[in-house]
Amino acid sequence: MGGIERTGRWPARLHVVTGKGGAGKTSVAAALALALASGGRRTLLVEVEGRQGIAQMFGTDPLPYEERRIATVPGGGEVRALAVDAEEALLEYLDMFYRLGAAGRALRKVGAIDFATTIAPGLRDVLLTGKVKEATTRSVDGRRAYDAVVLDAPPTGRIGRFLNVTAETARLAKMGPIKNQSEGVASLLRSAMTSVHVVTLLEEMPVQESLDAIAELATLHIPVGRIIVNGARPPLLTSGKVTKAELRRGLAAAGLPADPATVNGLHAEARAHLTRRELEESLRADLVEAGRPMVELPLLEQGVDRAGLDELAEHLLAV
């Protein structure tokens, strides 16, 4: 068993990662998939927004509508990735339930699929989440195909609607395969097999959107996992106040210029840093009040590459 499963701190099988745009939810999702693959496990990293963010992050060709290995981890674990396309999912759906393989492909040529998802926007989300559910519950030779599935989901402003597939399909179908599939997805999303992790920065807008999303998910009875604070910076000053005299003495002791302009500039920067740190502490307190476990990930000064993802994965393993 992998390290995460032994600790029991990431117990779900489906990990949905959301966050305000720019908060780094895709990098966190990728790092979590790497972490969950530790100890010889296999994970699937899924994206549904058509951005090919996973391929860019791992430096691979654009992902097709098939599961491909994109990374291995020490101990024999591996991460596979899938970019779910609503059109391909609909074709798969038509073939599965109505045996319309060739006819379904013909529908694509006349634009019927785009038409269907345009007049019924909720159908797109049902197809996307349905594919995620299929991968999460799939078995091969009596064993789960994946130990865990990580979904790089839409941002917090849309996550409730995206996951609340039952309400969306109630407008589309009262019976039949679409209704049955949506109910199966809804059951999975509201079970202990699922955790929705919310990624945020210590900034006012991302924190507020995160808190709103957590409240909305609670109303929908969809389980929230961890609040993941991304890009956290360590405090540069240990004191709550820095005087110009202290700065002048420190500069002189280090053999650096201690002229008034230098001291005044550093003093202004120190005050700005302390003000920023005070705001961050206030935002942390707001997040703590949400009552969910929190983990903080460091700011990657060199950007997000495979080494950076491995660093984030180590932090996620250590919580």
N to C succession of SSEs: HEHEHEEHHHHEEEHHHEHEHHEH
Per CATH, the architecture is 3-Layer(aba) Sandwich
User: What would you call the quaternary organization?
Assistant: single chain
Main sheet? Answer: 8 strands, mixed
Percent helix, as a range, is: 40-55%
Give the low-pLDDT segments: 1-7
State the secondary-structure class. Answer: alpha/beta
Estimated share of beta-strand residues: 15-25%
Instruction: Provide the spatial order of strands within the biggest beta sheet.
Output: 3-4-2-7-1-8-9-10
Mean pLDDT: 85
Walk me through what this model shows.
By secondary structure, the chain is of the alpha/beta class. 52% of the residues lie in helices and 17% in strands. The two termini are 17 Å apart. Residues 1-7 have low confidence and may be disordered. It has helices at residues 3-7, 25-36, 53-58, 86-98, 101-109, 112-119, 121-137, 156-163, 165-170, 177-189, 204-219, 244-253, 260-288, 306-318, and strands spanning 14-19, 42-47, 68-73, 77-83, 139-140, 143-144, 148-152, 194-200, 224-232, 294-298. The protein has 14 helices and ten strands. Strands 3-4-2-7-1-8-9-10 form an eight-stranded mixed beta sheet, sandwiched between helices. Strands 5-6 form a two-stranded antiparallel ribbon. It is elongated. Helix 4 (86-98) packs antiparallel against helix 5. It has one domain (3-85, 123-235, 290-318): Rossmann fold (3-Layer(aba) Sandwich), CATH 3.40.50.300. This is Arsenite efflux ATP-binding protein ArsA. Keywords: ATP-binding, Nucleotide-binding. GO terms for molecular function: ATP binding; ATP hydrolysis activity.
